[in-house]
Amino acid sequence: MAGALSSITRCNPISHLAFSTSNPKHQLLSRRFTALAMSRSDHSYWSSVHSEIDTHLEQAIPIKPPLVVYEPMHHLAFDAPQTSAPALCIAACELVGGHRDQAMAAASALRLMHASAFIHKNLPLTHRPGTRLTFDRTFGPNIELLTADGMIPFGLELLARSDDPDQNNSDRVLQAIVEISHAMGSQGVMEGLYNELEHDKSDGEEGFPVWWLHNVCRKKEGTLHACAGACGAILGGGSEEEIEKLRSYGLYVGMVQGIFNRFGGNACAWKEVKELRDLALKELKDFDQAKVITISRLVETKVL
C-alpha cells in the first residue's frame, strides 16, 4: 500500500469539496463510479435503512420539556451531515444473519457520535485557520458545545436501553458500548479530529504529507466505520472471525469516504480509492455473496 500512498504527495489535494456525480469538476472520478452505480433495489435498501434510523432517533429525541435540553439536541443531531457508518452497522448485522432491529440502537448512537464530532469540529472559534464547513447556527456556541458533549453519553444510553433479557443480548450490547467508547476516544475519532486541525494549519504549504491518510482519514472516518462494522456483526450474533472481517471492511469503507470528502474528484485520489476498495472487498469474500452485493456498494460509490 505504501507505493500507492506515495502518489498522493505528487497531487494537489487542496480541494475540500465533497464527491458529487453532478459536479463537472469531478467528471473523471464520477465516470468511474457511475459505471458501478447502484441498482434500484440497492438504492431502496439504503434509503429504507437511513429512514428507519431517522425515525428511531426522532422518537428517542422528541422536542419536549426541558426545551433547553431537547430542542438543541434534536436540531443539531439532524442538522449534521449524514455518514454511512450507521447504515453500515445495520448492513453488517443483517449480513451475519441478524435483524436490523438488533442494531438500530447502535446505529442511532453512531449517528449521534458523528454529529457530536461534527459540532466540535465546526465550533466558531476564531483561532482556527481557513473557512470551515458551517451549518445554520440556531444556537450559540455555548449551547452547541454542551449539546455535543451530551450527545455521547446519550447515545450510549440509547444502546444500553436495547438490552433485552428475552433476547439474551446483554453481553453483545455491553461489547458494542465498549467498541463505541473506544472508537470515539483519544486514540480514535478525537485523535483524528485533532490531527486534522493540526494539518489544516499547514494547508498552504507545498505538497501534502502522506500521514494524512493514516492519521486523519484512518483515525476519523476509518475508525467510526470500523466500529460500525464490528458493532453490527456483534449485535447480529456474528462469530469472532466475522466481527473482525467486518471491522476491517468498515475501516476501508471509512477511508474511502474520507478521501471523497477531502479530495472530491481529484484524479490522483482514484489510485488510493481503488486500492482500498480491493482490500475491502477481500474482507467480504467468505460471506454469502448474495448478501454481499448490497453492502459492497459502500466502497463502489458514495451512497449519501
UniProtKB/TrEMBL annotation:
<keyword id="KW-0479">Metal-binding</keyword>
<dbReference type="GO" id="GO:0046872">
    <property type="term" value="F:metal ion binding"/>
</dbReference>
<protein>
    <submittedName>
        <fullName>Uncharacterized protein</fullName>
    </submittedName>
</protein>
<dbReference type="GO" id="GO:0004659">
    <property type="term" value="F:prenyltransferase activity"/>
</dbReference>
<keyword id="KW-0460">Magnesium</keyword>
<dbReference type="InterPro" id="IPR008949">
    <property type="entry name" value="Isoprenoid_synthase_dom_sf"/>
</dbReference>
